[in-house]
Design brief:
- This protein is an alpha+beta fold and about 220 residues long.
- The chain has 2 domains: about 90 residues, Phosphoribosyl-AMP cyclohydrolase (Ubiquitin-like (UB roll)), CATH 3.10.20; about 110 residues, MazG-like (Helix Hairpins, Orthogonal Bundle).
Amino acid sequence: MTERTLRSPDDLAALRWNEAGLVPVVAQDAADGRVLMLAWANREALERALETGLMHYWSRSRARLWKKGESSGNLQRLVSLHGDCDADAVLARVRMEGPACHTGEATCFGELGDGTAEAEGAGGAGRGAGAEAGVPSSLLDELWEVLEARARERPEGSWTTRLLADENLRLKKLGEETVELVTALVRGDDRAPEEAADLVYHLMVALLGAGHSWAEVERELARRR
């Protein structure tokens, strides 16, 4: 599938702006795929979104830049931006804090239903991985969303819940998984991809437990790119 992710301000040059210098932006809930709202953005608004991690738009009625949630507190935290096939519209995958609509409803389109599902695996000496249905562009973003849900809900019997509750355990496991991956690579072991997946999972849990977000990692990678 064609890669159309907009990772840095430089990527915005590929978009086709209308005569007013705007593009329509569809905001989608990164956790469950619901369409939240439609707004317009100019280049500065999308640059601000990429730089701050918070969605900014252009108000045509007020003729000014605005940050979603600046008055209501209902912020949209950016997960990723994507141009469409014609480069004249943008999909913003976000994590919504509060309702998206000014009416107080979750979305500007009313009740859309929810067909999402999530799963988490943990076995052996504490190996774990997560997956969530929806329309994410990245399995890593998908996994992070599952981990955030575990952090909020803390379900009993979840390996992620146990790790988040015990800093020593999660850092110990991170170290163990690092060693196991290095060992597999040195030996030319076919299990190296499996060990790498274990390491990614434990790395994410360690970041979440320390108060960091995956979006911070993505922004740093984009900066280095």
